[in-house]
Design brief:
Blueprint: H1 2-12, E1 16-25, E2 31-42, E3 46-48, H2 50-60, H3 63-83, E4 90-94, H4 97-100, H5 105-116, E5 123-128, H6 135-147, E6 151-157, H7 164-169, E7 174-177, H8 179-182, H9 189-205, E8 208-211, H10 217-226, E9 230-232, E10 240-241, H11 245-252
The protein binds guanosine-5'-monophosphate (G) (2 copies), manganese (II) ion and sodium ion.
Organism: Cohnella yongneupensis
Domain EAL: 1-253
Protein name: EAL domain-containing protein
């Protein structure tokens, strides 16, 4: 397969890079962290979206190597920011399903934190609802990961099919409301009601809640009124390169 061949090369030749999208606390308007998003500019294929190459990496097993690179790079970068005086921020890393079910995941994450010198408080792992459906294996995995001292966010919430009863038992710290709901909250009373319900549920479960895909001031205002904790989306910034982060933070504060 063409993508597989070039992706293998890309990993050897260091063609991947990470961009970072800011996440802002809605109550005090401070940036609390950045989500890392992998990018691949292939000399042969041009810009390839992760939506395209992550599934290929999953199928071929390249995801282990790719995923470790992403984790190491994100941790290394956050530590570098901290050394430059940009402290107290988390970097969020998206995990794929095979990574999450890797028995060695917690050991690998622990080793990467050691190696990069990043405090576990500086790392958040994003998993999706579908990855938690196998309860027997998700529960101990989440427990071991959180024992490392890092936090776990449930990404794209609302697009999967977790039962609310299960959510109560799931050991997570944060829930990210999928942008498909957020994008219509000022136009659709149904979407506003869904988002309101998710936020209320998070309050009751003592989970931090993030709205993804916030694109307008009107959406931000409504989310603030509904008691949402964190906003992420093009209103604040699209994903940016690591070297743009210090400038972004200066302009922002
Ligand atoms: O950034 P963009 O909108 O192109 O991302 C498309 C999809 O790829 C999103 O669902 C995002 O979560 C996923 N993605 C981005 N970076 C990573 C990564 O480092 N690892 C995994 N597993 N998925 C990622
Ligand atoms: O699945 P995940 O939530 O990890 O996907 C994150 C992706 O969503 C990023 O690749 C980013 O490019 C995209 N994204 C982030 N903010 C916005 C936004 O405000 N609007 C739209 N349309 N896409 C966004
Ligand atoms: Mn994500
Ligand atoms: Na998402």
């Amino acid at each position: 397969m063409e993508i597989e061949f070039h992706l293998r090369k890309a990993l050897e030749n260091n063609e991947l890079l990470l961009q970072y999208q800011p996440e802002m606390c809605i109550t005090d308007h401070r940036i609390v962290g950045f989500e890392s998003l992998v990018r691949w500019n292939s000399p042969k294929l041009g810009l390839v979206s992760p939506a395209e190459f992550i599934p290929v990496a999953e199928e071929t097993g390249l995801i282990y190597q790719l995923g470790e690179w992403v984790l190491r790079e994100a941790c290394r970068q956050n530590r570098k920011w901290q050394d430059a005086g940009i402290s107290g921020l988390f970097v969020a890393v998206n995990l794929s399903s095979r990574q999450f079910y890797d028995q060695k995941l917690a050991d690998k994450v622990g080793a990467i934190l050691q190696e990069t010198g990043l405090s576990p408080k500086g790392l958040e792992l994003e998993i999706t609802e579908s990855m938690t459906m196998n309860r027997q294996s998700a529960t101990p995995t989440l427990q071991t990961l959180r024992q490392l001292g890092l936090s776990v966010a449930l990404d794209d919430f609302g697009t999967g099919y977790s039962s609310l009863a299960y959510l109560k038992e799931l050991q997570i710290d944060k829930l990210k409301i999928d942008r498909s709901f957020v994008s219509e909250i000022t136009k659709s009373t149904i979407d506003a009601s869904i988002v309101n319900t998710i936020i209320t549920l998070c309050k009751d479960l003592k989970l931090c809640v993030t709205a993804e895909g916030v694109e307008s001031e009107e959406e931000l205002l409504l989310l603030s009124q509904l008691g949402c904790n964190i906003a992420q989306g093009f209103l604040l910034s699209k994903p940016i390169d690591a070297d743009q982060v210090p400038g972004f933070l200066k302009r922002f504060s």
